[in-house]
């Protein structure tokens, strides 16, 4: 599956678009971690929850659960909210 990486995480991948596989969102993130060590921790916290500032969209629909089944093909978009003061 095609995964679009936000600019804040491109230091891990070196690219704005990468490939990853897995039957669930958790499996796709594990595959990304295997290929790009350290990237998963930027999206998933110590309690195995999606971090507040991260959103995942598959073909335009937001994913909220790491156990969400995913099709073999499609486009996963990772969005990282910006904050500041």
Summarize the structure.
The chain has 85 residues and is an alpha+beta fold.
What does this structure look like?
The chain is an alpha+beta fold and 85 residues long. It has a single domain (2-80), classed as Beta-grasp domain (Ubiquitin-like (UB roll)). 18% of the residues lie in helices and 24% in strands. It has 2 helices and 5 strands. It has helices at 10-13, 25-35, and strands at 2-4, 17-19, 54-58, 61-63, 75-80. A 5-stranded mixed β-sheet has the order 2-1-5-3-4, with no helix packed on it. It is globular. The mean pLDDT is 94. This is 9.5 kDa culture filtrate antigen cfp10A. Pfam families: ThiS. InterPro entries: Beta-grasp_dom_sf, Mopterin_synth/thiamin_S_b, Sulfur_Carrier/Prot_Modifier, ThiS/MoaD-like.
């Amino acid at each position: 599956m095609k995964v679009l990486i936000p600019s804040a995480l491109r230091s891990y991948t070196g690219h704005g678009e990468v490939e990853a596989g897995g039957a669930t969102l958790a499996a796709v993130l594990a595959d990304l971690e295997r290929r790009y060590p350290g990237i998963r921790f930027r999206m998933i916290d110590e309690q195995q929850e999606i971090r507040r500032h991260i959103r995942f969209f598959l073909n335009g629909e937001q994913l909220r659960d790491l156990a969400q089944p995913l099709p073999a093909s499609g486009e996963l978009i990772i969005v990282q909210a910006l904050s500041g003061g």
